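[job 0412] stage=complex_fold ligand=iron/sulfur cluster status=START
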Amino acid sequence: MEKQELETIIGTLGKRMNRQLKEYLDVCVRCAICKDACHQYVATQDMTYLPAHRAELVRAVYRKYFTKAGQFMPAVYEARDPDEHLLDDLYRSTYACTGCRRCMYYCPFSIDTQWVISAAKAMLIAAGRGNEMLGQLADAALFKGDNIEMFRDNLVEGFREIETQVRDITKNPEAEIPVDRQGADMLYVALAGSHSILPAAIIFNEAKASWTLSMFEAANYGFFFGDPDKARLIAKRFMDEAKRLGVKEVVITECGHAYRVAELFYEAWAKERMPFKVVHILEVIDRYVKEGRIKVDPRGIREKVTYHDPCQIGRNGGIYEQPRDIVKAIAPDFVDMTPNREKQWCCGGGGGIVAMEEFNEVRLKSGDMKVEQIKATGASVLACPCENCRLQIGELNEVHDLGLRVVPVMDLVVEAMGFGHAAGTTGDERDAAEAVV
Ligand code: SF4
Ligand code: SF4
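[job 0412] stage=complex_fold status=DONE, emitting structure tokens
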């Protein structure tokens, strides 16, 4: 390895070195309790995916360049250079990690392997080995954000088409999808495609909410790629929009990582306190149901329904009860999976892994525990408030022939409001809906 490349990698790790990272690198006692917590390791028994091993690759470099013992006796202290072999291993173990943090929950020292993985991604990017697809998707999002005027007319035309659908479905000619509305209470940040706009627009209009739709998407490939600057700039687009419009709340759609980025990371990245709250749309819908602002049929969903806790909304976001309260309010035959809440198994689809074909095999195999959990419930509907989880479980559904309907929670709410499968969440309906925007 060239001296300059080595210095760049070590310099990058040095810049990430704070008390938190140092502690995670210092305190691991190699008890291997985390091996039984990681869905990828449990499903494959491949060391590449053992949480402590993933972090160990960063630790080896840390010992060599940041500890005296590792510098003077590298063989004794298992200190290593970030050579080609180490970087290859690091790439596979790092970009496969879904960031579910189930390993942290079970680690006796609460070592956050995902935090170490974020340092590993920075090292890989510095070595020119960041994942190409995630990097391209992040750059495409930044380009769109920087050139929003180029896309504005098409976007607004798409929104008007969805607005017409909302009016047809609700038989309310006044229903609207406001854009750029100064002084609205809420800015709703959706995903690309109408499937995350239509059901929310129906609910907001029925609740007579004061809202406006963001011109920007919630998804953040900069976060998955592992570049906090890109991640911050992608989220900054709708944060600035929210400030400009003077809203009281930014409402993130049913997308796990987007919620976590906006609610838990953005202020620290931007070094600025935001003048509004960030909430998940299910917190808003739960409010509406409990306050009676939307009318739902308590027997609206007759099938047996279960709920998947997306890692970034549940274990890493702390939202467990509101989605369950919503589903229980509309589906009398609700059954929880075991385990659930903070102990739930990752479905295998997080961390951007669904966008990286090279990990397809481990991704699908790592869904085995989720498949068993779902089967054990006997449910025919799976309510799931995260796009990546829905993509993964949707694929598991086909591969394992589960016969499931995998649906966003807000779509079930729309059904229970008497608007049928209006939101078009599966199969051809959804493809058609996505083509609109
Ligand atoms: S459970 Fe924690 S201390 Fe034990 S090996 Fe895993 S990371 Fe290290
Ligand atoms: S964060 Fe999840 S995928 Fe990553 S090592 Fe831990 S348990 Fe495995």
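The two ends are 46 Å apart (CA to CA).
[job 0412] exit 0
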